[in-house]
Design brief:
The structure is a single chain. The protein is mainly β. It has helices spanning 3-9, 205-208, and strands at residues 28-36, 44-58, 61-70, 73-85, 88-92, 99-103, 111-113, 119-130, 133-140, 143-144, 150-151, 154-157, 161-162, 177-186, 189-193, 214-216, 223-227, 231-237, 243-248, 252-254, 261-269, 274-281. The strands form five sheets. Strands 6-5-4-3-2-1-14-15 form an eight-stranded antiparallel beta sheet, with no helix packed on it. A hairpin with a 6-residue loop joins β16 and β17 (223-227). It is 4% helix and 52% strand. It folds into two domains: 3-206, no CATH class; 209-281, Macroglobulin (MG2) domain (Immunoglobulin-like, Sandwich), CATH 2.60.40.
């Protein structure tokens, strides 16, 4: 078991970062995997590239523009306006209403609304040095895998944002799929990269599944078997993007209690790599 896991199990790391690291800084750039897997589709895998581009004044409040392109190509377009004050980051689209996107002043045990999502309880705070700077890391839905390693439903990193992507805290797809932060750059320098992925730009499932894996039988009635990797954790998502089954330390997935339909299977192997497969359940 790692030192981090032991500290988190003891109730959270009490060390304080040296000083607050703001998210809104010139030269910041975020890369987010946008994976849409809906029923009866083959799925779409794209990379959203966000960066900060100038300020605007709305109702005497100053916001910073967030621009976006798909896969780093095409004409940039504005997707949000952000402002940051006293460790909190607010988001709006037109200045008429705001949501609290991040609150880095929160304490362990606090209940927060993550973006447009549900209330999450802050389980623990650790300190990690990223890009040569000590940053707070917030853990929501903290659990441990069969090796004792900690993992969470979602994490935030001070100055970088959610591991779901800059604007996607607490997000989920209505028909399946997910967002994942891939990389964070500052002034063109890579500061942080998601350890589950090898690239900052992903446009196809083949770029995620660079190992040969198979899930069989497919369609299935009782169980399916994962071949090609050692599965550390397996999560099964329905067409609404809800987790309907979670297994750890096994390559066999029970689908006996699931209704007929198409499901997304997210496989995390013993090396921390992530793979996704679709499985049809037949009744």
């Amino acid at each position: 078991m790692t030192l981090l896991a032991l500290l988190l199990m003891a109730g959270g790391v009490k060390t304080q970062a040296q000083e607050y690291v703001p998210m809104i800084q010139e030269g910041n750039e975020w890369y987010t995997l946008d994976a849409i897997v809906c029923k009866d589709t083959e799925g779409h895998y794209n990379t959203l590239v966000n960066w900060l581009s100038g300020d605007t004044l709305i109702n005497e409040v100053r916001y910073t523009k967030v621009m976006e392109t798909l896969n780093g190509e095409g004409t940039p377009y504005q997707v949000a306006l952000l402002r940051e004050e006293d460790g909190k980051v607010w988001e709006t689209y037109n200045g008429n209403s705001e949501i609290l996107l991040y609150d880095f002043t929160a304490n362990v045990g606090d209940s927060l609304v993550c973006g447009y999502g549900d209330y999450f309880v802050l389980d623990s705070i650790s300190i990690e040095q990223i890009g040569g700077v000590d940053r707070k890391k917030f853990w929501f839905g903290l659990e441990y895998d069969f090796t004792g390693e900690p993992y969470a439903m979602e994490t935030w990193i001070e100055g970088i944002g959610s591991d779901l992507g800059l604007l996607y805290c607490g997000s989920y797809y209505f028909c399946g799929g997910y967002y994942r932060a891939l990389c964070f750059h500052q002034d063109g320098e890579l500061i942080w990269q998601n350890p589950e992925y090898d690239a900052c730009v992903i446009t196809s499932v083949e770029e995620i599944n660079d190992k040969v894996i198979s899930v069989y039988p497919n369609p299935a009635m009782e169980k399916v078997t994962i071949d090609g990797v050692e599965a550390a954790e397996v999560q099964v998502y329905n067409a609404l993007g809800q987790v309907v089954n979670t297994m750890r330390g096994t390559n066999e997935i029970s689908v006996a209690d699931l209704p007929q339909g198409v499901y997304l299977v997210r496989i995390k192997d013993a090396e921390g790599r992530v793979f996704t497969e679709k499985v049809a359940v037949k009744r």
